[in-house]
Design a protein that fits this description.
This protein is α/β, with parallel strands linked by helices and 306 residues long. It has 10 helices and 14 strands. β5 and β6 form a beta hairpin.
């Protein structure tokens, strides 16, 4: 609990520094997270002060390369809230992988609410063309410089606007990721030329009104905060990866309670493509107690991290 409060406070301080135009904090060894620690790290990318929270598993052995999971928050969120929603820290300690939670930049007019430039969404970062692709690449580089990382096992997941940035990163930095998972996001890109084939997990609530399952505009409340944009449907997002990974045209469908899982088989080089649709699912990180589905556990199983 102390770590969470301290991290949130540091995020707030960094936000004020960015809004005030302060220069980034100096780079020094005090920012390196020891095993089992959670720490806010500051980094300068393109002359802009940015930040991310890093969690290293408690029992990490010095010199042992570990998988790395990058978790991207949604619009209006931040790194610490992504930590709490996903619970990935506990899995990190149990299953021995590093997890990093980057912070976006100021989303709109509410201090401490961040978003990403995912192409068609969201808010100030999209309008001002913040280079979040360079930022995430720099974060991965810095974490790998501080801790041994297995470069063949770097994974990316994101919620909502973070899921949209996950798609964008798969297009522009696809060679860096072994697999991606998108929760409540959409492939809202006008151009995504020949991304690297990769395994993809798509999780989406059928009753999502913020990023509609069948595509279209966001709801009025979200548009008032971050601007309006057009969302690609889950079906079209999945079809893009089905074609890119050269999977079978039709999926194998399994239904269990409120969960429908479409698995596309026969993909090239043993890639995997799965689409999980949650009946009555809304725009939130799915948990067993809220939507009858544990997105975090499913993502880690898909990535073979747990």
């Amino acid at each position: 609990m102390i770590l969470r409060v301290r991290a949130a406070a540091l995020v707030a301080l960094l936000t004020l520094a960015v809004l005030a135009g302060c220069t980034p904090a100096p780079q020094d060894d005090s920012r390196v997270s020891p095993a089992g620690d959670v720490k806010l790290n500051l980094i300068e990318v393109g002359g802009v002060a940015r930040s991310y929270i890093l969690h290293v598993p408690e029992d990490a052995r010095p010199g042992k390369p570990l998988p790395l999971l990058v978790m991207l928050h949604g619009a209006g969120g931040d790194a610490d809230r992504a930590r709490l929603a996903s619970g990935f820290d506990d899995y990190s300690d149990a299953d021995d992988f590093i997890v990093v939670y980057p912070n976006g930049t100021q989303a709109a007019n509410v201090p401490g609410e961040f978003s990403w430039n995912a192409g068609a969404c969201c808010g100030v970062p999209q309008r001002t063309k913040v280079d979040d692709v360079a930022f995430i690449s720099a974060v991965i580089d810095e974490v790998a410089a501080q801790h041994p990382v297995d470069a063949s096992r770097v994974y990316l997941t994101g919620f909502s606007n973070g899921g949209m940035l996950t798609y964008r990163l798969s297009c522009e930095l696809g060679e860096r990721f072994a697999a991606i998972a998108i929760v409540g996001g959409a492939l809202n890109l006008s151009v995504c030329d020949a991304p690297a084939p990769m395994s993809v997990l798509i999780i989406h609530g059928i009753d999502d009104q913020t990023v509609p399952y069948d595509g279209g505009e966001s709801n009025e409340r979200t548009a008032a905060r971050f601007g309006q944009w057009e969302n690609v449907s889950v079906a079209d997002s999945a079809a893009f990866w089905r074609d890119r990974d050269e999977c079978d045209d039709e999926p194998v469908t399994a239904i269990e309670g409120v969960i429908t899982t479409d698995t596309y088989e026969g993909c090239m080089n043993d890639r995997m493509l799965e689409v999980v649709s949650i009946t009555n699912g809304t725009h939130a990180w799915p948990r067993i107690d809220t939507q009858g589905y544990d997105a975090s556990a499913s993502i880690l199983s898909f990535f073979q991290l747990s």
